[in-house]
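Hi Q.,

Before the meeting this afternoon, I wanted you to have the zinc ion prediction in hand. No need to reply - just skim if you have a minute. The sequence and ligand are here:
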Amino acid sequence: MSSVIPFSPLRVTKDDRIHRPLECAHHHIRLDPRGGLVNCRECGATLTPFWALSMLADQYAIALAQIQRLNERLALADSRILELSTELDATQGIERTGKESPPRP
Ligand SMILES: [Zn+2]
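Predicted structure with the ligand bound:
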């Protein structure tokens, strides 16, 4: 008689998907400071504080990238306004010059 107990192979899988279609993304969370609990406001799921912190860090990085893109667009718009203003000033200067001294016959 053998004393070795056979175990069936153990298989562990990890789900690394960030977004699961048709499932809540848990972006609106509620913190319970007394119990240290984190719950999703949308679906009520209990979340680990680590998961919530990771999600908030990801959202923060996305927001910072969007701010960066908007600042770049704002700088482009400012430079374009300056170009157009310079062109307008030059055009108005030509018109004024033309009015003040009409061409001689
Ligand atoms: Zn949720």
